[in-house]
Design goal:
By secondary structure, the chain is mainly alpha-helical. Helix content is 51%, strand content 10%. The protein has 9 helices and 5 strands. The strands form 2 sheets. Strands 2-3-4 form a 3-stranded antiparallel sheet, with helices on both faces. Strands 1-5 form a two-stranded antiparallel ribbon. It is elongated, with a radius of gyration of 24 Å. It starts with 6 loop residues before the first helix and ends with a strand.
Length: 248
């Protein structure tokens, strides 16, 4: 340990290391075993409470023993840059995507966790509704997207995974997760064209210009026909609540 640190700083570091890894790190001198055990259990249970609430499917498909082992590895090995409890699930997703994980996991597990985290993110989003015309022309004008919206693309069918279904082969899956007018989190199937349309709208394209850009990318022989299809799609997205209306 760094000798330049003050004694209380050295103690804090030793205490934190022990809490993260009680099986391999010695208890700091002067700390009673019973009190140390209380801290160890309290903090780990606090962490797992957030993980259990956000990732019920991931927990179910791994089983309790493997799930707790993964929780412990995350607690021990991942250095989170944020102190906020609400960010624990996001950090867990980052750990699965970027961390060094020794425990064998299904190839689709990180994507499943991201999908479950997306629901939480939309649920707690405090994004404000922007000004919009609910009946505005979505082709002539720029559509206003629901601010509590994620357009997601996965290599695996994450929305179908559960204890009764574990895919063996990748299957490209596009999904929309958003807050409905009722205030509840809603889900909708998507596809590459819809995802591209929403991305162009987010960049500031009008409905018509976005459709024409997609027609050019697809080398469509009849761009105006694609615009007509685009109008129908935009109206369906408005009906669902993915699009709120047109920019006034």
């Amino acid at each position: 340990m760094n000798a330049e640190l003050l004694p209380f700083q050295q103690f804090q570091i030793a205490f934190g290391r022990r809490i993260r890894d009680p099986k391999r790190v010695a208890r700091p001198k002067g700390v009673p075993a019973r009190r140390m055990a209380i801290y160890e259990e309290l903090l780990f249970n606090n962490l797992t409470g957030f993980l259990d609430a956000c990732f019920p499917v991931g927990r179910a498909v791994l089983g309790e023993v493997r799930w707790r082992r993964l929780n412990r590895a995350f607690f021990r090995d991942w250095r989170s840059p944020t102190p906020w409890f609400r960010e624990i699930p996001r950090e867990f997703v980052r750990y699965l995507q970027e961390g060094t994980i020794r425990q064998p996991l299904p190839a689709w597990f990180a994507e499943l966790a991201h999908y479950e985290w997306a629901e939480l993110t939309i649920d707690i989003s405090d994004a404000q509704i922007p000004a919009h015309d609910p009946e505005g022309d979505l082709i002539a004008n720029r559509a206003v997207l629901n601010p509590a919206l994620l357009s997601l693309a996965y290599a695996w069918p994450v929305n179908r995974i559960g204890p009764a279904y574990r895919p063996r082969k990748p299957q490209a899956t596009y999904l929309l997760v958003y807050r409905a007018a009722t205030g509840k989190v809603a889900f909708a199937a998507s596809n590459p064209v819809t995802a591209r349309l929403l991305a162009l709208i987010a960049e500031g394209f009008s409905g018509r210009d976005a459709c024409l850009a997609i027609a050019d990318e697809l080398k469509h022989p009849d761009p105006e026909k694609l615009v007509a299809h685009g109008r129908a799609l935009l109206e369906e997205l408005r009906r669902l609540g993915v699009i709120l209306g047109a920019k006034p």
